[in-house]
Amino acid sequence: MRIKDCILAIDQGTTSTRAIIFAPDSSIIAVAQQEFAQHYPNDGWVEHDPEDIWSSTVVVCRQAISEAIAKGARIAAIGVTNQRETTVVWDRSTGQAIYNAIVWQDRRTAQTCREMQDKGLFDVVNSRTGLLLDPYFSASKVAWILDNVDGAREKAEAGDLAFGTIDSFLIWRLTDGQMHATDVTNASRTNLFNIHDMAWDPKLLEVFNVPKSVLPEVKECADDFGHTTEDLFGFSLPILGVAGDQQAASIGQCCFNEGAIKSTYGTGCFVMLNTGTKAFNSKNKLLTTVAYTIKGETHYALEGSIFIAGAAIQWLRDGLGVIRSASETEDLAKSLDDEHGVYMVPAFAGLGAPHWAPDARGAVFGLTRGTTNAHFVRAALESVCYQTSDLLHAMAEDGVSLDKIRVDGGMVGNNWLCQFLAGILDVTVERPKIMETTALGAAYLAGLKAGIYQSCEQLASMNEVESSFEASMASSQRRKLISGWENAVQSTLGYSK
After folding, report:
1. Distance CA 23, CA 7 (A)
2. Helix 110-118 and helix 122-129: axis angle, to 10°?
3. Which ranges of 321-436 would DSSP assign to H, the alpha helix?
């Protein structure tokens, strides 16, 4: 039976690229995924080869399209979602990157950001962008590339170079250079975009020394981003939806109403609260960002960013050989009681919100001769929950109260993690029926532009919860565990200084 109006979602993540084809009812028709290499040329530096990103995108799209067509699907459009802040600069004439992609986790520009802070530039940046002066964001990465690649700044000034986050780079390649564009959510993560004027900001370009000539056009999330060339997939497809991964996950979770909150557990962890049509300024180092712009209406979000979540499990697997696969973690965590006493602070790329300590490094506390692989695994899982607790505490200090949180991402397939999270947060944790919410959000955006869906309200009516986890931890136990975590974090920060 032929399935009309399917949508190809490209989900370009930090460690892998996926292509998922959704039917109009949001069921999954086909999936393909490919991991790619991470590069660590210096302490605190993280890079990707842009050609790995591109080739993995083409491979998984072709695989998913082939499988979907074999099942009778007709693909109507493409939605793109991507790791945010990761920065690429490429030659406009060749389409080749002039340097590796500098990943959002990269900390090489920490000193530059400190110097800007010392010059009193924090308010200039924060008041316009809702962000902090931190190497996490794209602006200082762009400037670093222009200043450290021979001849790059001269070429940029001459209009020969293009800058983009990963969505822009993929759109350029998919359209064979016919479209240099991004969406408002990705633009809002660069430290160059004024989220109140919804435009690139001349003062910020001056502050970060980034020429306007390299910038992409900024579009709404559900918009026309051009067409793919026919040679890529055998036919041309319109690209009609784009959003950074965390905003896409929020859309996939149907967080369209003010006060709706989700937390995504992938390589990092990101909590995002819809604050409606007004930008909310945090007093506790949370970020103000654009949630989406759809049909002319912009919603903002309050966000807390954790740099290391699933990456800690990946490190246990690939770096230490403690586990063979992430699927082992649930049983290992269950094998220990709550008094195991080991805390892991996974500050491998610094600590994000609410600490924003780029020089912090990871630490493990409470080791004894009795410490086993299970202790490392459980401490890593718990660290994700403790970091989420820190974010929600900061939100509470900003006046936000909540009784439930929607979760998604690869880690939340672990029932033990979801239950521990509910206990530590003292809220209900809801896990969706469709776990691929990031890709689903990109598909929803493309579907809105294509006319497959008529409104956000229609999408919300399709949202289904698969499991709810209720808080059952005693308050005394919660306080004890969080106190131990806070001591571990303070010790880590003290060592880093």
Report:
1. 7
2. 110
3. 329-334, 373-397, 415-425
Distance CA 7, CA 79 (A): 7
What pLDDT score does 305 carry? 84
Q: Where are the beta strands (DSSP E) in 168-282?
A: 181-183, 193-194, 199-200, 217-219, 239-244, 261-265, 269-276
328 Cβ contact partners less than 8 Å away, ≥ 6 residues apart: 377
Residue 1's pLDDT is: 44
State the pTM of this model. 0.87
Q: What is the dihedral of CA 281, 283, 287, 292, to 10 degrees?
A: -30
Query: What average pLDDT does range 211-234 have in this prediction?
Result: 96
pLDDT tens, residue by residue, 404-420: 899 988 889 999 999 99
- CA 479, distance to chain mean position in Å, is 30
Picking from 454, 459, 494, the residue whose alpha carbon sits closest to that of residue 359 is: 494
Q: Which amino acid is at 370?
A: G
Return the DSSP state at 214.
G
Sign of CA dihedral 268, 273, 275, 280: negative
How would residue 434 be classed by pLDDT, with cut points 50, 70 and 90?
Answer: confident
Question: Residue 311: phi, psi to the nearest 5?
Answer: -60, -30
Query: Could you report how far apart the first and last alpha carbons of the chain are, in Å?
Result: 63
Phi, psi of 305 (to 5 degrees): -115, 125
Mean pLDDT of the chain: 93
Q: In the structure, what pLDDT confidence band is assigned to residue 2 with cuts at 50, 70 and 90?
A: low
Give the CA distances from residue 93 to residues 96, 97, 162, 213, 473, in Å, rounded to whole numbers and listed in that order.
Answer: 8, 11, 10, 14, 59
- Rounded to 10°, the helix 138-148/110-118 angle is 110
Torsion angle in degrees (nearest 10) through CA of 391, 273, 266, 237: -160
Render pLDDT for 440-479 as a digit per residue (tens, 0 to 9): 999 999 999 999 999 999 999 888 888 999 998 999 999 9
User: What is the dihedral angle through the alpha carbons of 200, 206, 130, 84, rounded to the nearest 10 degrees?
Assistant: 70
